[in-house]
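Hey, quick one: can you model this chain's 3D structure?
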Amino acid sequence: MARRSMKEEILGAGVDLFLEKGFNAAGVKDITDRAGVPKGSFYNHFESKEALATVALERYGETRRLTDLANREIPPLERIRRHFEFLRDELPDFARGCMFGNFSAEVVDHSEPLRLRVHDSLNLWSTLLADAIAEGQAAGEIRGSLDPQQTAHYLTNAWEGTLLQMRADKNPDAFDVFFAVTFDALLT
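Sure thing. Here's the predicted structure for all 188 residues.
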């Protein structure tokens, strides 16, 4: 009988713990305990915690529904708003942030593979936002004076700052500010 792969269980536990505790505080034993697998099985699937984190960042990115930003069946401004509403609404509490932002603050200065994964993830996010902004400008929904790429980078940076403020305040008020400035003043 073939041995069952524990890779998905380990990966899922890694994503959860990296979001809950951060990279440094989530040990391999914590991850394997959460996955319900022996610690030795970790190294059958991942060379190191850094290797797991690289895959975990990719998996996390897949859950951000970034491709929804390219859905041309929805008007661009509404698409952008829905995207940020999804990101806001899927946060279970005031303790977790975004894995891209968390890893940016915690480990990118110490791990080139993780820095590159975070960099690529943020660039993909910004590119998809920039495309939606440009489409919105062409449709007359978004201010034409904005540079789409700069605005997209600004929005991702503002979102990450919003998450930090939300975590520090332990309440959702920072989201109200983000949505008011972004959708009532900046884009329109």
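One thing worth noting: The domain at 7-52 is CATH 1.10.10.60 (Arc Repressor Mutant, subunit A).
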